TrEMBL record:
Gene Ontology molecular functions: calcium-dependent cysteine-type endopeptidase activity
Domain Calpain catalytic: residue ranges: 1-285
Alphabetical list of SMART domains matching this protein: calpain_III (SM00720), CysPc (SM00230)
Protein name per the record: Calpain catalytic domain-containing protein
Any single Gene Ontology cellular-component annotation: cytoplasm
Domain of life: Eukaryota
Active site: C44, H201, N225
Cited InterPro entries: C2_III, Calpain_cysteine_protease, Calpain_domain_III, Calpain_III, Calpain_III_sf, Papain-like_cys_pep_sf, Pept_cys_AS, Peptidase_C2_calpain_cat
Keywords: Hydrolase, Protease, Thiol protease
SUPFAM superfamilies listed in its UniProt record: Calpain large subunit, middle domain (domain III), Cysteine proteinases
């Protein structure tokens, strides 16, 4: 049954910023991660992404165009830009915001009550998806992708890749954005732990640094709680803990170290591993960086991925063959051929990094109509000698996949990271069950050189 839209549990008054404060500002003294404070809406996942966005001027101004204010040519409207299924869309909103009877903003807001970019951004994102209600519950990765066009992968910190720290450091160098969380209790969503952390809550990672602490070189991770308050980690390397005495004032200053009830804290990599369970990494592609450069004039120097993307459709009786468990129909699914060459012939292991993402479209937008997110995944096959046309049932009956998505799961997007030799491969995205219909997008990121085409 389609779910009915519900009214907020209190009387809402819609006010323009000029009716809330005198002399409102879109951005006050520059944007920062402290401009993002959660209100009464359960969208901490969106706030964690917005806080991450503020760390990079060129990404921030791609989403929040700088040519608007409450003074010059003010007409009561603002516009924001979001990446949606392969293209950037402009979302125009009026600036009436939901407030309580006392005039305070109900939802996302800035610590400075004269600043309104974050509240307006949330409204524009709600319009993109149909309502504020549609924003309840989600993953930081979804919002990060919609604000950058990047490809996000999930990493289970309890069962991590052996090179997790190197992957994170390399990701920071390549401009990737990060979110992290601890699994919620089954019957209690945002449960406070004795160490100050909160289960079932989305955090953003805002920095990494290796310092010489009491036990020698120590990797540290800076993390922010979007509540923006005193609810912070209270273990080693937390605010005012004894470990900081080992660092010089110059190092602390270079780290931008401040001890305040602002939701932000440092934690050692080892404690991060012990306490957090999920990591989300948003990898940025060259198209995103080129768009940013054209808009802002800022030249980025990071190494970037080579990227390919395809739009596809699963349709009953035609292209919706289900997963490999359904051998009789599996070959019906869309099939995509890639040819990889190693970009660095001097690389020791002669392997390419390959990140595959399959994203199902329009599910959040249709949630209020009872349309559920499907369980989706993909399989990767090594094709020695190449291929010209779609692989058939006989091939799949006799050939094992060389890689596949970690699980078939009902997320908007499923991703997987692989280290594979240069060569030719076929990727098959599918729903778990046959005859389930959806539009999807396949994206491929690699550090190698790639050629690709759809097979027919």
């Amino acid at each position: 049954m389609p779910s009915k839209s519900r009214r907020p549990n209190k009387r809402v008054q819609w006010r323009r910023p000029g009716e809330i404060v005198r002399d409102p500002l879109l951005i006050s003294e520059g944007h920062s991660r402290f401009d993002v404070v959660q209100g009464e809406l359960g969208d901490c996942w969106l706030l964690a992404a917005a806080a991450n966005l503020t760390l990079r001027d060129e990404l921030f101004y791609r989403v929040v165009p700088p040519d608007q204010s409450f003074t010059d040519n003010y007409a009561g409207i603002f516009h924001f830009q979001f990446w949606q299924y392969g293209r950037w869309v402009d979302v125009v909103i009026d600036d009436k915001l939901p407030t309580a009877s006392n005039g305070e903003l109900l939802y996302m807001h800035s610590r400075d009550n004269r600043e309104f970019w974050s509240a307006l951004l949330e409204k524009a994102y709600a319009k993109l998806h149909g309502s504020y209600e549609a924003l309840k519950g989600g993953t930081t990765s979804e919002a990060l992708e919609d604000m950058t066009g990047g490809l996000t992968e999930f990493i289970d910190i309890n069962d991590p890749p052996s090179n997790l720290m190197e992957l994170m450091i390399r990701g920071v160098e390549m401009g990737s954005l990060f979110g992290c969380s601890i699994e919620a209790y089954p019957y209690k969503w945002e449960a406070r732990l004795s160490n100050g952390l909160i289960k079932g809550h989305a955090y953003s990672i805002t920095g990494m640094r290796i310092v010489n602490g009491p036990r020698g070189p120590t990797p540290l991770i800076r993390i922010r709680n979007p509540w923006g308050n005193e609810q912070e980690w209270n273990g080693a390397w937390s605010d005012n803990s004894s470990e900081w005495r080992y660092l010089s004032p110059q190092v602390k200053q270079s780290m931008g170290l401040t001890f305040a009830h602002d939701g932000e804290f440092w934690i050692s990599y080892e404690d991060f591993r012990r306490n957090f369970e999920k990591l989300e990494v948003c990898n940025l592609g060259p198209d995103v960086m080129q768009e940013v450069q054209q808009m802002t004039g800022i030249q980025t120097k990071q190494e970037t991925w080579a990227v390919r993307s395809f739009d596809g459709i699963w349709r009953r009786g035609q292209t919706a063959g289900g997963c490999r468990n359904y051998l009789r129909t599996f070959a019906m699914n869309p099939q995509y051929h890639i040819k990889l060459r190693d970009a660095d012939p001097n690389d020791d292991d002669d392997l390419c990094t390959l990140i595959i993402g399959v994203l199902q479209k329009y599910r959040r937008e249709l949630k209020s109509h009872g349309v559920e997110t499907l369980a989706i995944g993909f399989a990767l096959y090594d094709i020695r000698g190449g291929v010209r046309r779609k692989l058939d049932t006989e091939f799949f009956a006799n050939t094992k996949s060389c890689g596949r998505s970690p699980a078939f799961i009902n997320l908007r997007e499923v991703t997987g990271r692989f280290r594979v030799p240069p060569g030719e491969y076929v990727i098959i995205p599918s729903t778990y069950e046959p005859n389930e219909e959806a539009d999807f997008m396949l994206r491929i990121f690699t550090n190698g050189i790639i050629e690709s085409n759809e097979l027919f």
